[in-house]
Design brief:
- The protein has a single domain, classed as pyruvate-formate lyase- activating enzyme (Alpha-Beta Horseshoe), CATH 3.80.30.30.
- Helix content is 42%, strand content 20%.
- It has 12 helices and 14 strands.
- A 7-stranded parallel sheet has the order 1-5-6-7-9-10-14. It has a 3-stranded antiparallel sheet with strand order 11-13-12. A two-stranded antiparallel sheet has the order 2-4.
- Helix 9 links the parallel strand 9 and strand 10.
- Helix 4 runs parallel beside helix 5 and helix 9 runs parallel beside helix 12.
- It is globular and about 50 Å long.
- The two termini are 13 Å apart.
- 37% of the residues are buried.
- The structure holds iron/sulfur cluster (SF4).
- Iron/sulfur cluster (SF4) binds next to strand 3.
């Protein structure tokens, strides 16, 4: 289900289970029996394990799956800890994914970076990726409860990019809505207005998909959610849109970018079935 972005040694770690945000399509509702957040306080041990892996090979590590780590930054400061740790590990590349908008949490992490020696900071800026999930305005407002607005996320992406860090745009999950062509075109136009091509490291694209067992539980919890009650197709234990809709959504987005970025910068999650 995860996009490796071509990295051979792809890992993800969950220092925090569950999320402050509440996206109606989030698989966490089907994965955990409770919505209570669980924080792993043995961060030092996670760092030690990462160092052990680094003695074997370079590591590409996503630290904000199964949660939105940055949303809890004010309480945990885990993003800042990861940033400082990563600064000292030259073969470690981090992806920090978020649906936060521009807020003090970003600034506090960037402030920690500013205090690093220049040569270390330069290396870190190649290896600490801020990934922003961007959704249709309509989807953010109706399904992604408590998350940063679309404009606030774009402002955050711009701020991070101006600070010199790589920005990844995640258009994942793409959601099928009426008028999806005009809606996604408007979203891509907004991205183009806010970020120059050179400010975007890469873009991931993927349509909504979720395992059969998770969706069963999610549907029970949200019987009136249009995104969960859609008649998805089941293939090999995974529910997703029919192939024709998947292709439509992906091509609509790619067409809307219309050469704004080289194709090598796009990573597609494709249904393997
Ligand atoms: S921000 Fe991500 S992890 Fe959090 S509820 Fe939304 S989809 Fe789930």
């Amino acid at each position: 289900m995860c996009q490796s972005f071509g990295n051979q040694h792809f890992y993800y770690t969950s220092c925090l289970m569950n999320c402050m945000f509440d996206c109606e399509y989030c698989y966490l509702q089907g994965m955990y029996p409770s919505a209570n957040p669980v924080v792993f306080v043995n961060l030092e041990e996670i760092f030690e394990e990462t160092k052990r892996l680094l003695t074997i090979h370079p590591v590409y590590l996503c630290i904000s799956y199964d949660s939105d780590l940055l949303a809890m930054e004010k309480i945990l400061s885990y993003c800042a800890h990861w940033l400082t740790f990563t600064a000292g590990q030259k073969d470690l590349c981090i992806e920090l994914r978020t649906k936060c908008g521009y807020n003090p949490n970003f600034l506090s992490v960037l402030d920690v970076a500013k205090k690093l020696p220049e040569n270390i900071l330069l290396s870190l800026k190649q290896r600490f990726i801020f990934a922003f999930t961007l959704s249709l305005d309509l989807i953010q407002k109706t399904l992604e409860h408590n998350t940063g607005s679309l404009l606030a996320r774009l402002k955050a992406a711009k701020t991070v990019s101006l600070a010199g860090f790589p920005v990844r745009i995640c258009l994942d999950p793409l959601i099928y809505v009426p008028e999806y062509k005009t809606a996604y075109k408007a979203l891509i136009d907004l991205i183009k207005q806010n970020l120059l091509p050179e400010q975007i490291k890469d873009i991931s694209l993927g349509t909504f998909r979720v395992s059969k067992e998770y969706l069963k539980r999610m549907r029970k919890q949200r019987p009136y959610s249009f995104v969960l009650q859609f008649p998805y197709e089941l293939n090999h234990g995974v529910f997703s849109y029919p192939k024709s809709i998947e292709q439509e959504l992906i091509h609509t987005v790619l067409d809307a970018f219309d050469g704004y970025l080289p194709t090598s910068k796009f990573y597609l999650w494709e249904n393997a079935y």
